[in-house]
Specification:
The structure is a single chain. The strands form two sheets. Strands 1-2 form a two-stranded antiparallel sheet. Strands 3-4 form a two-stranded antiparallel sheet. The chain is extended and about 90 Å long. 19% of the residues are buried. It contains 18 helices and four strands. A hairpin with a 2-residue loop joins strand 1 and strand 2. Helix content is 49%, strand content 4%. It has four domains: 184 residues, no CATH class; 42 residues; 75 residues; 56 residues, no CATH class. With 423 residues, the chain is mainly alpha-helical. The longest helix has 32 residues. It binds zinc ion. The site of zinc ion has 8 residues, from helix 13.
Length: 423
C-alpha cells in the first residue's frame, strides 16, 4: 500500500495528525526562507555556479519559476523584517501574504503595517494597503493595450519588485501568452475607489465608441469610469422599470394592463417592491428573514389558483429558492415536482466507450504538440499498454518514446489519417 493512501486511518487519527503536519510545514517554510536569505546574502549561489538566486532555486532546488520567485521575494522581505519568520511559524503570515505586503514594506511604519496585516487574508491586506497608500486611478479613456492600459499601473501589489534578479511577471507565467480571462478583476485602490480590469470583445469596444460619440462632450474624453457610470445608470433604470414598475406612469385601475389573473400591474409591483425593500420577504419559523436581493420574484401568498387576489396585500417579493419552497408548501411537493420535471422521452442507451486512464488528456497534449492523427494513434497505443495505475506523466512519456522510434515515424508517414483511438 502506498504510504500516501490513508484510507485505513481512523477519523480521530487523521484529524489529530493534520494540524501537526501543518505546523511542521509552516516551520519548514520559515527555515527555508531563512536559509535562502542567508545563501543570497553570502552569495553562495554564485560560488555554486549559478548566476542568480533564481537560477539556483530553479535549477538546483528544482522549484518552478513561479515557486522560486515567490520564495525569493518572501525570503528577502523576511530577512529585512525578521518578525515575519515567527509569523510564518505561527500561521499569521504565509508566502502569499508576505508577497502582498512586500512592495509596501519600505515604509517608516513597517512594524505597524506588519502587525496590522498579521492574520489577514491577501484580499484584506490589499484593502489595508489601498487605504494606507492610495494609488492614482487605473485607466484613461483612449489608451490602448499598446500603451499598457490593460496593465495595473503598479506591479508592486502583486509583489513583483523591480530591479531584483528574478523573472518579470510575464516570465513567471511562462513564455506562452496566457489566454484572456473573461472575468473582471476588482482591485481596491483607496477607501472609495476600485480599479476594474476586464477583457471585452471587439463588439463591446465598438459599443463604447458609439456611446462616446453620442455623449459628445457630456463625458470628458478619457473618462471611461464616467461613461461606465452613465451606462449603468441607464441599465438600472431600465431594469427597475421592467421588474419593479418604477419610473413608470401607471395606468388607471379602470384600464387594466392585462386580463391574465397572474399579471401584476406596474403600480402594484412598485408598491410591493417598496414595501419589501427589494429584499426577499421570506421569514423562517424562528424569525430569520432571508437577506437575498438577487433575482427576486413576485409571490402570490394565496395562489391565484386558490382564489388569491393580485393586490399588494396578497403579494410579496421572494427569492427563487423561497419561491420554490413556498410553492411546495402551498401546492404540494408532489404536484410541483410533476410540474418541474415533465416526463422526458426515454434516452437511447449510450454506446459504451472504453478508454484507458488519461486518454483524453494525452490526446489533447499530443494534438497541442501538433502530431498528426496517425502519430497520436501510435502514442495512445503505447500509453494504453501501461498498467491501469500508470500516471498521466508515465503515459505521456511512453507515448513520446514510441513516437521517437524510426519505425513509428515511418509508420505515421505511411499511415492514412486514422481515428486516433487505440485498439
Ligand atoms: Zn429568500
Amino acid at each position: 500500500m502506498s504510504r500516501y493512501s490513508l484510507s485505513h486511518l481512523a477519523d480521530g487519527r487523521l484529524f489529530q495528525e493534520l494540524p501537526h503536519i501543518a505546523a511542521v510545514d509552516r516551520a519548514t517554510t520559515a527555515d527555508l526562507l531563512a536559509h535562502l536569505a542567508e545563501v543570497e546574502v553570502r552569495g553562495l549561489f554564485a560560488v555554486a555556479g549559478y548566476s542568480s538566486m533564481f537560477a539556483y532555486c530553479t535549477e538546483h532546488l528544482k522549484y518552478s519559476d513561479a515557486a522560486a520567485h515567490k520564495r525569493i521575494t518572501a525570503c528577502r522581505v523576511a530577512h529585512d523584517h525578521p518578525v515575519l519568520f515567527d509569523m510564518v511559524v505561527d500561521g499569521r503570515m504565509s508566502l502569499t501574504t508576505i508577497i502582498a505586503l512586500s512592495a509596501k514594506l519600505p515604509t517608516p511604519d513597517a512594524a505597524g503595517l506588519i502587525e496590522e496585516c498579521a492574520g489577514k487574508s491577501r484580499s484584506e491586506i490589499e484593502w489595508i494597503l489601498a487605504k494606507r497608500f492610495p494609488k492614482p486611478e487605473m485607466f484613461e479613456w483612449g489608451t490602448s493595450s499598446e500603451s499598457g492600459a490593460q496593465q495595473a499601473p503598479d506591479n508592486s501589489v502583486n509583489g513583483i519588485a523591480p530591479g531584483r534578479l528574478v523573472p518579470s511577471e510575464s516570465q513567471e507565467s511562462g513564455s506562452i501568452a496566457a489566454p484572456a480571462k473573461p472575468d473582471a478583476r476588482l482591485t481596491p485602490l483607496s477607501e472609495d475607489r476600485v480599479a476594474l480590469q476586464v477583457t471585452i470583445s471587439r463588439a463591446t469596444q465598438q459599443k463604447l465608441e458609439r456611446a462616446k460619440e453620442l455623449l459628445g462632450y457630456e463625458v470628458a474624453a478619457g473618462d471611461a469610469a464616467a461613461l461606465l457610470d452613465r451606462a449603468l445608470d441607464a441599465l438600472i433604470v431600465e431594469l427597475e422599470k421592467k421588474k419593479y414598475g418604477k419610473h413608470t406612469k401607471h395606468r388607471a385601475e379602470s384600464a387594466p394592463e392585462s386580463a391574465d389573473p397572474h399579471y401584476i400591474p406596474s403600480a402594484i409591483r412598485e408598491e410591493v417592491a417598496k414595501r419589501d425593500g427589494e429584499q426577499c420577504a421570506f421569514v423562517s419559523d424562528d424569525g430569520k428573514r432571508c437577506e437575498s436581493r438577487h433575482a427576486l420574484e413576485f409571490d402570490h401568498i394565496v395562489p391565484v389558483t386558490k382564489g388569491g387576489a393580485t393586490n399588494a396585500d396578497n403579494l410579496r417579493l421572494i427569492c427563487h429558492a423561497h419561491n420554490q419552497l413556498e410553492a411546495d408548501r402551498k401546492l404540494g411537493k408532489q404536484f410541483m415536482n410533476s410540474k418541474r420535471r415533465p416526463k422526458a422521452s426515454p434516452k437511447p442507451e449510450p454506446k459504451p466507450v472504453l478508454k484507458f486512464p488519461f486518454e483524453d488528456d494525452l490526446r489533447a497534449a499530443l494534438t497541442t504538440l501538433q502530431y498528426t492523427r496517425a502519430e497520436i494513434s501510435i502514442g495512445l497505443c503505447a500509453s494504453a499498454r501501461l498498467a491501469p495505475e500508470a500516471t498521466c506523466e508515465q503515459r505521456m512519456k511512453a507515448a513520446l518514446e514510441a513516437l521517437r522510434t524510426p519505425h513509428a515515424k515511418k509508420l505515421a508517414f505511411a499511415k492514412a489519417p486514422a481515428s486516433g483511438a487505440p485498439a
